[in-house]
């Protein structure tokens, strides 16, 4: 058992998600002290999708997200649900300055010309009463069809409306959320220990979740349901969040995309100028303050 724990603490990310050679990944919980004026020019995408930020919870990695938003721009930015965690805020108020900074950063992007579209999820379902309105130039909508530069049509939705547990056994979802919060607390402790040992962030919570057979079965079933809905809408694929597992893959001839989260995987989905979709992992790419930022690309479609 001791050897297994030691191996986990020393676990390294896949080579594809490591920082560029010569850079040093930041320990979890640290932030870039370099003034914004000295930072490199942000990378520009046609579209970015982020979801499951869970502002208002201790597990939210707001400072990593702020760094990502500072170094990546887009014509359109989709907020694909669970941006603010109303479930946790009802239990107790938690709102550090970094969470407020994320909100201000998103509003600032909208003011400066980025089209920001907010698609609420289950944890921020209270925002669904404002569908059709706009807050500080941020549009609120229940779902949207996104057309990529190469002409493909994607259904963009959080995904909770296709989750049977959320729709028919919400009490069970609340219990599961409490257990998940405990796992995330363990994840923070675990990564704090890794940071002191000089190792980069590595998601213990995702490792546990993906080793549990029932969780893997749920994820597979969720992907199938989402693809079936995209086919019913005569789309080429679906883009969603909800299950905190970033992925791009083809299922029954259609493209399933999940942009991940900013609690565990610290990932986003991006569309380049030619319509290529790719997952960006910011977890292991928070390199030394003087080095240029670059996100590790895991999958493309």
Word description of this protein:
The chain has 301 residues and is an alpha/beta fold. It contains eight helices and 13 strands. The chain has helices spanning 2-9, 62-71, 86-91, 97-111, 164-168, 170-196, 204-211, 213-232; strands spanning 43-50, 72-79, 115-118, 134-135, 138-140, 144-147, 153-156, 237-240, 247-251, 254-258, 267-271, 277-281, 296-300. The strands form two sheets. It has an eight-stranded mixed sheet with strand order 4-5-3-2-1-11-12-13. The protein has a five-stranded mixed sheet with strand order 6-7-8-10-9, with helices on one face. Helix 2 links the parallel strand 1 (43-50) and strand 2. Helix 2 (62-71) runs parallel beside helix 4 (97-111). It is globular. The model is unreliable at 1-37, 164-176 and 287-292 (pLDDT under 50).
List the helices and strands and how they pair.
Layout: H1 2-9, E1 43-50, H2 62-71, E2 72-79, H3 86-91, H4 97-111, E3 115-118, E4 134-135, E5 138-140, E6 144-147, E7 153-156, H5 164-168, H6 170-196, H7 204-211, H8 213-232, E8 237-240, E9 247-251, E10 254-258, E11 267-271, E12 277-281, E13 296-300
Parallel strand pairs: 1-2, 2-3, 3-5, 7-8, 8-10
Antiparallel strand pairs: 1-11, 4-5, 6-7, 9-10, 11-12, 12-13
Helix pairs in contact: 2-4
